[in-house]
Every structure is written in C-alpha cells, then in structure tokens.
Q: What sequence folds into this?
C-alpha cells in the first residue's frame, strides 16, 4: 500500500508556519536524527512532518479521519536531497520526503518502498483532483486502468492485478505514487 | 454572540478555502467541514489559526477533534468565547 502528499508552498492561502503550529501535528515520539534538519526553517520542517504524516495516513487506506498527532514520524537520514523516514500508525511504514521547487513531497509505503514510483504535475484547472488523475491516466499504457475500490480509493488495474495508487493535489501542484507491477509501469 | 452569528462568521472564515463557492450556500449544521466543503487538508491548520485569531481563543486538541461539522465548530467556538 502506498500514500502520497504534496504541499505547494506558493499557495497564497497558506499562513506562515512556526514552531508554535507544531502543536497541531506533533506526536510525542516524533524524532529526527541529529543534524539532518540543520539549516531547514521551522516552516519547512512543519510541512515535512505534515506531508510525511499525510502520506502514512493515505498508505493505510483506512476509513478514518486524518489525525496527524496519532502518526509517529522518525526522520532517519538525508541523502541526495531526500529524507528517508519511518512512520508508525496502525502499521509501520517507510517513506521519503523531497523538498524542491517550493514543494514538499512525501510518499510512504507499508512495504516495498524500493518499488515505489511517483510523478509530479503542474496543475491549472479549477478541478485539480480530476486534472491530476487525467494527467496520470494519459501517460498510462493502454493495458492499465485506473479504477476505484469499494471506498472510492484509487487502484491501478492490469489484467487480474490490482495495486494501490495514491493521488495528492494542492494549489498548482499534483502528485501520484504507485507501486510498480511485476512487469513494470514506466 | 448567538449560534447564527457565529455561523455567519465561520462562513466568511471558510470562504477563501472553499473552491466550489456554491457549497457554502445553505450551510447546515450537519455539513462536514473538510469532506463536504472539499477543503484541502493542508488548510486545516490555517482555518484553526484564523478562528483562534478572530475570536482571540485557543483551540486545544480535544476541541479540534470535536469540530468535524459546522454545528460542532459553532458549539466549540461558543463555549470558548463564553469561557474567556
């Protein structure tokens, strides 16, 4: 299972985040390894934890409300501009955070993060949810279909296989993450 | 301040965050703030901050968890205002 989240920091409606706002999202056991957040502003750190928690939440595909304070994030390492983290909600997850182009992007998987793939899109329409799905499906080989499960959560279908896929959009940014099928979705 | 007044003010707080403005027409107490109004989750904290600033109140965790619908949000705000 996989979850993705993207935050577009160019959104003019986003109020500035500081240490004070961490009270809305912090789990008592959230941690980060020494030094890996040096030079990163509180505002960005807030969104890194937020995006990671959203990605973990979505990776579970549960019919429960998003409660960031219930989700534990441990930032483990920083390499090649990517933070790797472990998340814990109902299940343990692995994840990655990428901060670039004024976007904070996170994905999380319950297993098999090495098979995680993602794409990011710039969005223009007033229906961003539909737009990001359309952009993704336009790139899919014809043998793949985007379908929904009984909770209306997205799945990628290929022959008899059905794999979770996750979408996110915010302001002018959209993202999708999926787990690569055995014969590959490139 | 009565509930109708708070509802009118909440509607103004929510308006910038709601893409489909028609969803704010006939705002009932049962409307789910995030799901029904299709507010991006990234703005949840912004909305709480706007409400805290508008009424000079602090919305604690327990209260946030009770603010799922418009009616529940009104109740939380009313109690916080009255206890100031």
A:
């Amino acid at each position: 299972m996989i979850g993705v989240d993207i935050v577009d920091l160019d959104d003019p409606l986003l109020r500035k985040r500081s240490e004070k706002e961490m009270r809305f999202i912090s789990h008592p056991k959230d941690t980060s390894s020494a030094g890996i957040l040096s030079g990163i502003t509180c505002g960005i750190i807030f969104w890194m934890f937020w995006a990671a928690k959203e990605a973990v939440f979505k990776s579970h595909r549960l019919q429960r409300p998003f409660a960031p304070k219930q989700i534990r994030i441990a930032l483990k390492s920083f390499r090649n501009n990517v933070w790797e983290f472990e998340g814990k909600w109902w299940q343990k997850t692995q994840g990655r955070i990428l901060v670039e182009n004024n976007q904070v992007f996170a994905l999380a998987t319950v297993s098999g993060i090495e098979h995680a793939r993602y794409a990011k899109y710039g969005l223009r329409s007033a229906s961003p949810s539909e737009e990001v799905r359309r952009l993704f499906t336009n790139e899919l080989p014809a043998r793949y279909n985007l379908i929904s499960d009984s909770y209306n959560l997205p799945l990628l279908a290929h022959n008899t296989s059905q794999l979770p896929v996750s979408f996110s959009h915010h302001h002018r940014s959209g993202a999708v993450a999926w787990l690569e099928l055995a014969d590959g979705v490139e | 301040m009565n509930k109708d007044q708070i509802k009118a003010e909440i509607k103004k707080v929510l308006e910038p965050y709601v893409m489909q403005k028609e969803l704010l027409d006939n705002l009932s107490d049962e409307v789910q703030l995030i799901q029904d109004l299709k507010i991006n989750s990234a703005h949840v904290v912004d909305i709480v901050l706007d409400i805290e600033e508008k009424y000079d109140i602090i919305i604690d965790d327990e209260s946030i968890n009770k603010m799922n619908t418009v009616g529940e949000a009104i109740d939380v705000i009313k109690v916080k205002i009255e206890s100031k």
Summary: The CA atoms of residues 20 and 37 of chain B lie 8 Å apart. The helical segments of chain B are 3-14, 44-55, 61-65, 70-82.
